[in-house]
Amino acid sequence: MTVVEALFIFRLAASEFSSAKNNKVIVIGAVVGSAVALLGLVVIVIWTRQRRFRGNDEARGGRNSEQSKDGKVKFFPTGAASVVVEGGDVISLLDHRLDENADTEELRRIARVACWCIQDDENNRPTMGQVVQILEGVLEVNPPPLPRSLQAFIDNHEDIVFFTEESSSQSSQPQSNSLSIDSSQAKSTASTTDGDQFQRLVTKPPEKLPPRITRRVSSILLIQYLTCACCHRNMFLALPPENPILASHDAIPVIDLSGLDGSIECRMMTVEAIASACAHWGFFRIISHGIEISLMEEMLKAVEGFFELPWEEKMKYASEDVMNPVRYGTSLNTPKQHALHWRDYLRHFGHPIHNHFHLWPSQPPNYRVVTKEYLEEIWKLAIKISGAISKGLGLEWDYIEKSLGEGCQIVASNYYPPCPQPHLTLGLASHSDHGGLTILMQNEVDGLQVKHGGAWVPVHHVPATLVVNIGDYIEILSNGRYKSVEHRGVVNAERTRISVAVGHGPEMTAIVAPASPLVDEKNKTKYRPTTYKDYMRAQQSSAVRGKSPLQDIMTSTTTENA
Ligand SMILES: O=C(O)CCC(=O)C(=O)O
Ligand SMILES: [Fe+2]
């Protein structure tokens, strides 16, 4: 593909992106083969953004070119590429609204990779994988040669096809004040380049990795990455320096839930086992839970099917509003955090299902039906376990159930693609869940870790089991007797991990506060009351680290009363 062809396609298909299944980077859906060339142009658009290439400048009539004082028409990509090739001031090309507020090195890297992507000979262009690594600073990139087809615009500056800024539904009329070059002409000027040019791209790992760490370029993220890099935002999620030592065994308690359907002794023993697990771990594995294995498998498949949809289909559910009933994204609050997880997620409300069913993803075709069945079963299971937890706290069986009102169920499906540098990043940073109980299912790839006694303990995949953890709502309701436990997701270099975490909490308007039977003169309230909606919003909007949202509503127990 020549640059001109790429420009045409960019012009006509600017919004058509799809995910490359394997390497999880953005490509342009309409392009078969040379997506990298188009990527190079997209990169130039993003980095220089408004003023010339996109033609926002009305004075220039929305063209991707401008006329200099000597009357010559300059094609902006050519000018930009020349600056990059000659080692000029890349900051001068930056969107002026950014007030030169960018990291020159980062920008130079972006600019160079953009120019390598639009080399005339496809063999000289980097692979998507190399693009990603260069942008991340893992590989170094040398200055590129000026693409010959851009050189053609210098040589034939009066013969330029201008593309207007109108949407692709309008025809792309040449705006030339003279003749036009069509793509075949440009092709003829773009002969293949020397075989050794690719060598000049030579990318070598830097001696040490950059300090800011999350390497996350998935379907959503390449664009975010580039935009944020241009805005000089720190979007990397670093591991905490004092990472606790990782215990190597999986020691969370295992509870046979069939005990809750047995004799009274059996029930009480199971209640005690759950109470002990909540008090000491906040996490436990359940067996004999009553959810059909086939349903679990179908749910995992439906979720996987969603993540494998084309990018544009998934993006229908992207939202920056943390309270949106359906959300597809990456970190919980990407615009605010500028710190990204190595994962994509789909998060939406479940119970009461009739309120939300119609909003759920309509693809893959069986997603809604399977999810409905799974969430209904999981809701019943959550209520059953909540009964045992209530009893274990010395409350009535139905205390927690009643406190939920209509209740709220949220399913968060997480998709963690393989990561080339897994030890340097996280799929999901340490956090506690805002709800009462989370019931989690994972595919056969490990990655969940629970903080216990100052160490991170892995929770391995065990077929047919589910993992339960208590969240902030139960910590608050128990007046701190049970603690919601921090957990996180790590990633690996080989396999995609999928987890489906279903959280259960009260209806949005419910007041979140300690259960009154658990508050007295001796046990003063440890948490300030708030509505669940406000708490959830605060939790979802904060940088997802540790338990800070919960700490924000803690009282000084020595001074405050219920
Ligand atoms: O992927 C996992 O195992 C953890 C998921 C999780 O903690 C969450 O979605 O809240
Ligand atoms: Fe979680």
UniProtKB/TrEMBL annotation:
Region listing for Disordered, in residue ranges: 165-210, 538-562
Domain spans labelled Fe2OG dioxygenase: 404-506
Compositional bias of kind Low complexity: 167-185
The keyword NAD is assigned to this record: no
Single GO molecular function: metal ion binding
TM spans (from-to): 25-47
Protein keywords: Iron, Kinase, Lectin, Membrane, Metal-binding, Transferase, Transmembrane, Transmembrane helix
Xref: SUPFAM superfamilies: Clavaminate synthase-like, Protein kinase-like (PK-like)
Tagged with keyword NAD: no
InterPro entries: DIOX_N, IPNS-like_FE2OG_OXY, IPNS-like_sf, Kinase-like_dom_sf, Oxoglu/Fe-dep_dioxygenase_dom, Plant_2OG-oxidoreductases
Superkingdom assignment: Eukaryota
Family: Belongs to the iron/ascorbate-dependent oxidoreductase family.
Name recorded for this polypeptide: S-locus lectin protein kinase family protein
Species classification: Eukaryota, Viridiplantae, Streptophyta, Embryophyta, Tracheophyta
